[in-house]
């Protein structure tokens, strides 16, 4: 095999899977990661006798490539499904938002609006022509199909919470992709959403991939912050890092995730969407309500997540200032939660968490091949789907076919 000495830069899931698949093809691979640990956005931290993701993660029912990889790595016995409840917080009230019946009983909308919303969601799942949604904003598309009130009551606050000042410019294909993905993860007749998880967290997947890489003769080098590419001494260098996005005129939003450790159960919901822009985070993920474990020894974990520009003033807040701000927001939703119930908290920040979708994005997607020695495989190339482990693997498979 010619030009077979390969450097993979980035030790997140993208880099690990890329390195593993290339090794199976017979390439000589060295993986470089700037941090002292692998995993990237899927990296974990220790809690009690196990580990937990720094940023919430789960698998969807349609993640067939990810499930095949899990089985190939011998992790099938650690994988399980849950059928969690979802909620929607609006104007001081939390509403169930799990089943079609919940939508039919959703008080912020009139009955005709609820029916229109349900029919629209069904139609979106059948729609395959996403190209026509490339040049239209989500705001325009949603108002055209659902009306102003549904947009203002449901979608506008959600888009603002996710994309802040960029909300009105987000293309319609992004909403289409989200609705389509969530629809596919539901059980028959859309009754409940099915989500998967690994006992022991994503760390077992990260460890299994790392073991496969070294077992196939690959090398992993941690603590390697590299800035000049391609790397000398290699035939080809593959970048799986997002930091090069600016070279292609693309932008990422950062994410701050504050995790609260407590023994107090706040609700029955795993996922609570927040349609209230006075609250400084966009979602509450009550981890134990879907993926509890005896290893947690009764401790519960709440993920409070915000997407924002890493150059914003809010990003500059200290961890203590973030805690104070987030607790005030949490108590607007759950007044019974007192600071005394806080056992501990953890703050994790990622500057490059969410590629910012823009109108005409398909014309901006970077190619795999930059030049003869430099290649790119990154979640900024996942399109029109949103980022996720299954679509990451799909992208990597496409890349390797062309490599």
Automatic annotation (TrEMBL):
Molecular function GO terms recorded: oxidoreductase activity
Q: What SUPFAM superfamilies does this protein's entry cite?
A: FAD/NAD(P)-binding domain
Taxonomic classification: Bacteria, Bacillati, Saganbacteria
Q: Which domain of life is it from?
A: Bacteria
Which part of the chain is the Amine oxidase domain?
13-228
Protein's UniProt name: Amine oxidase domain-containing protein
UniProt cross-references to PANTHER family, sorted A to Z: AMINE OXIDASE, PROTOPORPHYRINOGEN OXIDASE
Q: Which InterPro entries match?
A: Amino_oxidase (IPR002937), FAD/NAD-bd_sf (IPR036188), Zeta_carotene_desat/Oxidored (IPR050464)
Q: Which Gene3D superfamilies match?
A: FAD/NAD(P)-binding domain (3.50.50.60)
The membrane-spanning stretches of this chain are none
